[in-house]
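Input:
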Amino acid sequence: MALKKKPVTGMKDILPEEMEIRDYVIGIIKETYKEFGFTSIETPCVEHIENLSSKQGGENEKLIFKILKRGDKLKAVQEKGAEDENELADGGLRYDLTVPLVRFYSNNANGLPTPFKSLQIGSVWRADRPQKGRYRQFYQCDIDILGESSNLAEIELILATTTTLGKLGFKNFQIKINDRQILKAMAGYSGFSEKDYDSVFITLDKLDKIGMEGVAGELLENGFSQESIDKYLDLFKGFEAAENGLQYIYDSLGEYLESSVKTGLKEIIDSVSAVKSSDFEIVFDPSLVRGMSYYTGTIFEIAMPKLGIACGGGGRYDKMIGKFTGKDVPACGFSIGFERIVLLLLENGFQVPNQKKKTAFLIEKGISSEKLCEIIAQAQKLRSQGTQILVARMNKNKKFQKETLAAQGYEEFQEFFVK
Amino acid sequence: MALKKKPVTGMKDILPEEMEIRDYVIGIIKETYKEFGFTSIETPCVEHIENLSSKQGGENEKLIFKILKRGDKLKAVQEKGAEDENELADGGLRYDLTVPLVRFYSNNANGLPTPFKSLQIGSVWRADRPQKGRYRQFYQCDIDILGESSNLAEIELILATTTTLGKLGFKNFQIKINDRQILKAMAGYSGFSEKDYDSVFITLDKLDKIGMEGVAGELLENGFSQESIDKYLDLFKGFEAAENGLQYIYDSLGEYLESSVKTGLKEIIDSVSAVKSSDFEIVFDPSLVRGMSYYTGTIFEIAMPKLGIACGGGGRYDKMIGKFTGKDVPACGFSIGFERIVLLLLENGFQVPNQKKKTAFLIEKGISSEKLCEIIAQAQKLRSQGTQILVARMNKNKKFQKETLAAQGYEEFQEFFVK
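Output:
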């Protein structure tokens, strides 16, 4: 039986042209984040099924690729009959890098400095319905600051991320920022009860797609009072009309919002705006929700011009480490949408800068050992000087061979014949 | 319930100190292999269970982490009752990079040049019994040349690998080389029948550990004739005593060995010796077996001084692509033992060269927004000049904070107070 040539459903082979860009992006990311004092770590791709199913992952928990138990453990479950599919599995592929990071920190905190600035680049897996441009295995690239309760964490994360995007040539983008406390205060001020906040935010999250009227309609359908809905949407309308939207929201909410949240958020926006080195603006967006319920404070998102979807995001999650250790540690992270960044670069015909010169040595078959040695010695010398040399036997169809090599960037060809 | 802090059994968290070395090694590997014309590719970590169980993986096929089917497919299997655990799974984590590479090549050959020189660095998984220094998830780093039937493939692979090891500071190591044709000819010459070759080679593979007498004993136990055993071991004894061991084996085997194999292997050894730029020797070793039965020709291995185990290896596997496409394509690969290399560097106290200067800015809590902006602006300026700057709030225990930062390489501290 012939073996299967295609990758498994929803995952993809990455060809050299794309890998070149990916490697370049990873290089810039590592270099820049290192300048900000972030240090690389890695966690296993396989996590305990209990950790992955612990309600930290929201909707992603429905998309776990589970790892079958092995040997006697599997036999035992099969003999008694598995009632739940989780009994058949003892691990799963991580669906994000945040849950593993929090486990990592809980396990290793003793040997780590405070604050701990972590950089992770790695694959994650989600058994999503396959669709164009969306894969079941994809890279995430996260920076997190653990143990820093002040807004210096947010400022550093946003500056590091935007400096990286700037170095990659991105311009004229936005960092949208909000705070879960503001979201809650706006809902509370409008008269929604606390138990309904998550439901209200799920609807609000659709504002970009369905507009104010759509949001109003959905909230009404969900049984909320017209009065609350009107009061809520008036806040957003007032924000849009105001010259200083942030101040308008602060003034409207009054005591519904703690003053420390107010000054903290304003300080982030002001300092990032003052010291930024890339071409972007940071804007307060009271309708920014971010899906994950684990966020406890600031939340933010990268919006690229003319792109309908976010290119990354993050926020503060001060309550997650306590789930592992019993003791909360302040934490804040920012994830770059690595695959989207690469896709944008590919679509814009991005060329990796400062490429080395590529030369191909093509050797006719039957050349003597002595001559072969000379040719290879010459190649080794050029390589040690930094030229990229491919040494290969000449194919029967030399023209086609040269064409495929030229497509890979080989500009110069040297041919060596038997005589 | 508290979540699990330890990684899953047999896998490990990688801390910043080790990651720094890993990143450095990967950088050198990519840079050097690129000079030889290798191009990076990536395949999904999850492979079709059929491909992984196709007898290409030898003993590794018993160690597959299998991925549970999902949704209706899983329900269907559970309702009818799974007779075989493979029915419960539709994928598995790759146990090496060779099977996925061959699938990749079969799927994408049309768009690839000939020869295709591939570089892969990535994790593989084996559900081995956990033991010291051996993990269930580990990196492999493979280079392969597909579509090159001549020994230029072997020469390029060995030069690229040894140049890389040299750049990483390894000296005085050996590349052991042999050919499956020689292994077979030696067994045939000694009177073993072809169906027994694999069994004989499994015993021969233990020569390093159990010596000549041990090998003789095990072969006898396995029912082979004393005459064949004596003749076989006399070859190895003669080889060891001879001044030119390769020539001795060639002379002894006479017509049992094709002359193209003889000249091909000699040419590899001679050219590599002539043009090598690192401090190593390439030696013919007729007892080198390499486990995988898919090898069809040359096989080789890296032996580090005083280290009992191989630090990498590879060989020619001309018959594997045909299993996917129906048409054989010559193929040859060399895998560096990435984890062993990193372990050796760690054990030898290796320091990554040309590290950037690291400075920590420690800011007292309560500093004004204006002052904070100034400090961050100063940090941004130094970063853009290449200094690594950590900006953090001063901890209550400043002495301890400085100590843990110093352990991460921070040499200079600047402190900023409220007044």
